[in-house]
Amino acid sequence: MRTWPVIGTIAKRELAAYFESPVAYVFLVVFLLLSGFFTFSLGGFFELGEASLNSFFTWMPWLFLFLVPAVGMRLWSEERRLGTIELLLTMPVLPWQAIVAKYLASWAFLAIALALTFPVVITVNWLGDPDNGVIVAGYVGSLLLAGTFLAIASLTSALTRNQVIAFILALMLCLLLILVGFAPVTTMLSRFADIWLVDTVASFSVLTHFEGFQKGVLDTRDLLFFFSVIAFSLFTTGVVLRSHRAG
Amino acid sequence: MIKVENLSKTFGSKRAVDDVSFEVRKGEVLGFLGPNGAGKSTTMRMITGFYPATAGKVSVCGFDVSENPIAAKVKMGYLPEAAPSYQEMTVLSFLNFAAEMRGLRGEDRRKAVRRVVETCHLDMVLGQTIDTLSKGFKHRTCLAQSIIHDPEVLVLDEPTDGLDPNQKHEVRTLIKRMGETKAIIFSTHILEEVEAVCSRAIIIDRGRVVADGTPAELKARSARAGAVLVTLHGASVEAVKEKLSGIAALHHADVCPAPEGRVTVEAFPSPDAGAERDALAGRIAEMAIRESWKIEQLKTEEGRLEEVFRSITMPDTQLVKGAA
Ligand SMILES: Nc1ncnc2c1ncn2[C@@H]1O[C@H](COP(=O)(O)OP(=O)(O)O)[C@@H](O)[C@H]1O
Ligand SMILES: [Mg+2]
User: Which domain holds residue B202?
Assistant: First the structure.
């Protein structure tokens, strides 16, 4: 009955905490600069001569690979380091509610960061006549991708009090989820293994499931993939947090 | 209101809390004493539902903490050891957060925050971020959070730790006042605090309850309890020793000369003297009057909590009666 008010209270505090630290603003600036740089410079936006955000979304997994763990690393490691987890979990809230609330707040922060890339959308619309449906699908995919990496960062931040270690662990796990579907890697793998095996492995990659969104296709299997990883990671966050207290 | 039954907690192979049982009723302030590492914080963490118990049961206002955690937590306020709080928040936003977590909204929330700000003297620092506060203020901010919903049960882990003497006194007064209407359990290793505040005290050592009683009862377990201290004028050491030997309830006495012709006596009653024990001071006074010695000082030792504490938690020093 009191689930949503409690989740709302925790999430509000968490989100406010981001904006009370200068790190949030540094993050936003870095994210916007890098996404612009990747899109317009490395992505060959102007050379392609087409009005789309394809290069913008192609770079997104790589950008998130570093930036999302940076946002998520403090989620639980900080609570444990400062001991505030003891305060939080002895208030009338169930652990899963606290986990979801903190997660949603960080996800909202990433959503804000994504939303702030709107000048890119305006630019392509001004330069040409893009398919805005594809762009919306790309944003939905990006948000899900960010949410997936964030859930993994939530898990690694529960594992250790040290934020740097949480960051590195999250980065390695996310990198793994990218690489198993990264074309150069799958090509190399297919030289040693059967194609069905390579495909099976690749089906665990976020790249494989992000592709559809980039093309403007919303596939339930892709949605299911992202939500499964998120649910699994958050569930495991709860298991890890409980194991610290179980002794 | 707090009922702890056969509570145990093991970390790996280490038994931090071992079969602890006690009860705290409304209007009671229970002092939880013990050396560092005795298991006080671990017990409190199980009471507040932060640590699941390895064995045993805790109920708060009738709600089992592991089966019905939310209902139990609603009734409880908790000040964790070291008084953690969100460092980047201001005192006001932190208290607003705590109030909202307790389901207080709108005018209720404002009233609750105003009340604890007054109680804990935080008005000076309301707009300050917590990481810029002095230790005393940080501590009181966290204490304020624990009483914001006016809980029936309060669990305070070392609530006076790190405060200056004035602040300590203030917090003790506050605990004592709140204890009239709530059930409070607080841990400390300051013994005078127990005497000043508690209606009952438990001493725990290496995870086990080793003593449980009112401060007076605990003090009576001290070897010094019942000893009579007298300073006499106009007597000689030999004469005093001789006359003392005629008192039946006396076990032994230390008689020493003091400056300006005084003699001090420290007389210990025999353990099996029964009712005569309490009469020892009277017997000594009668003796002095008979001999026309002037009594400058006469007092019966209540016993010292510190001594009881030390002898119980350091068994090598046998200061407690019957410990041998
Ligand atoms: N999370 C934990 N993991 C392992 N051991 C612990 C943990 N918490 C407490 N202990 C151990 O349990 C014992 C009791 O600790 P604690 O309850 O903090 O004592 P106190 O509060 O009385 O000083 C100590 O020996 C401590 O090292
Ligand atoms: Mg402790």
Answer: 2-219
